[in-house]
């Protein structure tokens, strides 16, 4: 429980920062909208950017091209982006994705325990996990490509 509350406390504070002492992310599991299963353990060795988002969120929509760009630029270096949609139906998300395709792997609330571990009352929310599964940084709110690149520098992903 201590890990869960540490992550919740980090996600609930400040706008953008690197974690001063990297805490382990809580154990999580899930599957993407395409049925790909994942867990904290299966993603070890990868840099994982979690983006908590919603279809109605204008700031989330504005960040989508930036998320796609950094994913394209750093996927060969081990970056995985999980776009965790929060509290919307599968039908609504599929309808949205048909009009606005995403390059990242999309995850629904019903298919993961991630949304129960962090406060998701402001969107977008980004949580960066390093290759060891430790929380390296958090960004609360939109910041575009520049912000995402600053966040990824915390785990030595940069161009």
Can you tell me about this structure?
The chain has helices at residues 2-12, 58-74, 90-99, 144-153, and strands at 16-18, 29-32, 37-39, 47-53, 79-85, 105-112, 125-129, 135-140. Strand 5 (79-85), helix 3 (90-99) and strand 6 (105-112) form a beta-alpha-beta unit. It contains four helices and eight strands; from the N terminus they run αββββαβαβββα. Residues 1-6 have low confidence and may be disordered. By secondary structure, it is α+β, with helices and mostly antiparallel strands. Helix content is 30%, strand content 27%. The protein has a single domain (2-153), classed as Glutaredoxin (3-Layer(aba) Sandwich), CATH 3.40.30. It starts with a helix and ends in a 6-residue tail after the last helix.
Kindly report how far apart the N and C termini lie. Answer: 37 Å
Number of strands: 8
Which series of helices and strands comes N to C? HEEEEHEHEEEH
Q: Which descriptor suits the 3D outline?
A: globular
Quaternary organisation:
single chain
Please list the strands of the largest sheet in the order they lie side by side. Answer: 1-8-7-4-5-6-2-3
Main beta-sheet annotation: 8 strands, mixed
Assess the beta-strand content as a share of residues.
25-35%
Instruction: Assign a percent range to the helix content.
Output: 25-40%
